[in-house]
């Protein structure tokens, strides 16, 4: 299983992914599911604008790795005039490029996987910004179609999404400061990890503040002292807050 | 959808069920999913021991209503010497009786439902105690097989279980006092209702303290003032606790 989430806040973009993959509970490995690109652009000489792009993947690892490999190859080898995520003029077109890759790979690999009784299900989150444009986040489904998150619900999740959603619903809005957004993302991950063994550390975090290009990336191990303090303190505060709640009278 | 949960605490049993059923989002009704029996017994005259029994249901309403109807009919009409949940000597045998009903009804109705493209999926939680015996809770699956909760994880859930599990994992143990157990159950329900529209109020609550027979039952409407205060205060405390958490440095 997997849990990845993307937050699109006024102050910036936050991506957080776990790194556990499993082919059964007896076959668990660490695989990065967060990919970032930071491309300087060449707008001064009529080339593409600078861009900060991110991708997180869930589902069939062979499917999503092929999508990433094809994307990287395309950036390196595309002929002049052929659009790639490095030259697309908008985040919508970047999302469309990943959606098209998803369709291609599903069409080529899906039938054989299905014949072998193996699922080719996969989904991705695409995040980024181009030039001075705003940050945008997209959820790309298995059929290559996609949706974009709006200000009303400024986050997207893939994989094991339910355990970690309650905390996001309660504390997160588009106005949440970037540092609080990182905390909310980590608590969402922490709740998921406690409930689903097949989601696990290390976690990959990438943050890009509004108005600047490039990602701050950090890998967070399970024994990271700040993460551990965050998790323990949150548990303590939940319990203290819980004890302070009013009692419900048991009869009408 | 449905969300029901049962807590088996040292101080007693707690059952909580939502009451929303839907046949599509355009066809939503209120149906009770919590059924309780309080049977005085006749141990003095060699009859069955007193018992306090509860049932919560999820899944196909036609399947689970038939199970309840058959169970009620059997209690009323069983010939002397024929075991029913009113005379079974142990909670294990009570769970087995509900499991057998599930198998019967699935065998009779399942194929026709499947032919019509309708799911017959259903699950149930059985809770109770017999005589001076301990409280026990069981989760009965569609095939009629079942598991019993143990002290390590003293709760069971059916229906939309994931949103409400994180809070239970964080605050609940078998030693949790009964009044705190009720709060934890309501917060678990509150988190689920916020995330899944097809789970909704009113909620049915039943509590039976250890050492006594019979249920305290209460129906909780969405605008119940104590429930609303619990929900609002919890949200406020979560936000306050959240703000007090340490910040994660973004670079290693």
Structural description of this entry:
The structure is a homodimer of 252-residue chains. Helices cover 34% and strands 27% of the residues of chain A. The first copy, chain A, is of the alpha+beta class and 252 residues long. In chain A, the strands form 3 sheets. Chain A has a 5-stranded antiparallel β-sheet, with helices on one face. A 5-stranded antiparallel β-sheet of chain A has the order 5-6-7-8-9, with helices on one face. In chain A, a hairpin with a 5-residue loop joins strand 3 and strand 4. In chain A, helix 3 packs antiparallel against helix 4. The model of chain A has no long low-confidence stretch (mean pLDDT 93).
How would the global form of chain A be characterised?
Answer: globular
Structural class of chain A: alpha+beta
Write the H/E string of chain A, N to C: EEEEEEHHEEEEHHEEH
The Cα radius of gyration of chain A reads 20 Å
Count of DSSP-assigned helices of chain A: 5
What is the distance, rounded to the nearest whole angstrom, between the alpha carbons of the first and last residues of chain A?
Answer: 44 Å
Give the low-confidence spans of chain A. none
Biggest beta sheet attributes of chain A: 5 strands, antiparallel
Strand content of chain A: 25-35%
Which range best describes the helical content of chain A: under 10%, 10-25%, 25-40%, 40-55%, 55-70% or over 70%?
25-40%
Going across the biggest sheet of chain A, name each strand in turn.
10-1-2-11-12
Largest interface comes to: A-B, 48 and 48 residues
pLDDT averaged over residues of chain A:
93
Total E-strand runs of chain A: 12
Oligomer: homodimer
């Amino acid at each position: 299983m997997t849990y990845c989430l993307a937050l699109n806040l006024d102050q910036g973009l936050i991506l957080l992914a776990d790194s556990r993959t499993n082919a059964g509970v007896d076959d668990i490995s660490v695989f990065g599911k967060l990919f970032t690109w930071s491309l300087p652009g060449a707008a001064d000489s009529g080339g593409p604008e600078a861009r900060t792009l991110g991708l997180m993947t869930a589902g069939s690892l062979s499917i999503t790795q092929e999508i990433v490999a094809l994307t990287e190859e395309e950036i390196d080898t595309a002929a002049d005039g052929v659009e790639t995520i490095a030259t697309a003029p908008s985040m919508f077109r970047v999302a469309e490029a990943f959606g098209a890759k998803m369709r291609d790979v599903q069409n080529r690999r899906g039938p054989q996987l299905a014949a072998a009784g193996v699922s080719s299900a996969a989904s991705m989150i695409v995040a980024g910004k181009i030039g001075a444009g705003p940050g945008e986040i997209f959820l790309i489904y298995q059929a290559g179609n996609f949706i974009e998150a709006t200000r009303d619900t400024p986050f997207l999740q893939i994989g094991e999404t339910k355990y970690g959603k309650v905390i996001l619903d309660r504390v997160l809005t588009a106005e949440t400061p970037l540092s609080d957004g990182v905390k909310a993302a980590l608590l969402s991950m922490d709740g998921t990890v406690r409930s689903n063994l097949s989601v696990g550390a290390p976690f990959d975090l990438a943050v890009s503040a509004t108005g600047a290009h490039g990602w701050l990336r950090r890998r967070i191990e399970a024994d990271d002292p700040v993460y551990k303090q965050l998790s323990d303190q949150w548990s303590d505060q939940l319990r203290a807050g819980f004890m302070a709640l009013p009692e419900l009278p048991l009869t009408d």
